[in-house]
Amino acid sequence: MQNPDLIFSPGLLTGWGWNDDRIGIWMDVREGVTWHDVSAFTAEDVAWSLQRAGDPASGNPIQFLWSKVTDYKVSGNRVTANKFAGTIHCAVKIGFAAHFLSA
After folding, report:
1. Alpha-carbon distance 93 to 59, whole Å?
2. E strand or H helix at 51, and its extent?
């Protein structure tokens, strides 16, 4: 999210990072966010959206990036992807993309 003073503030994620062995990622989803119909925005929504973003049939222009992340799991407000299929170069790209979800 961008504030009126043009400074970015956290949006849908409150935090993200690498797991202990640095081949997986975690994301913490902000509580209290709702969709336009006032239903809750959940960690399940994030996992579903990222899985869809990695599906070649989605037409996503950066599908090649999200297809490298697999094995999404949800626990409370945390989304993890414990199996990272790709190179460290791709891991850096995914970290960069996750940054924009939280900024």
Report:
1. 19
2. helix 43-53
pTM: 0.71
Which amino acid belongs to residue 61?
P
- CATH number of the CATH domain containing 45: 3.90.76.10
* Contact in structure between 65 and 93 (CB atoms under 8 Å): yes
Six token digits for residue 70: 């697999």
Q: Per residue in 4-35, pLDDT tens?
A: 887 766 688 888 888 888 888 899 999 999 99
The answer to whether position 7 is within a domain reads: no
How many domains is the chain built from?
A: 1
The answer as to whether 57 is a domain residue is yes
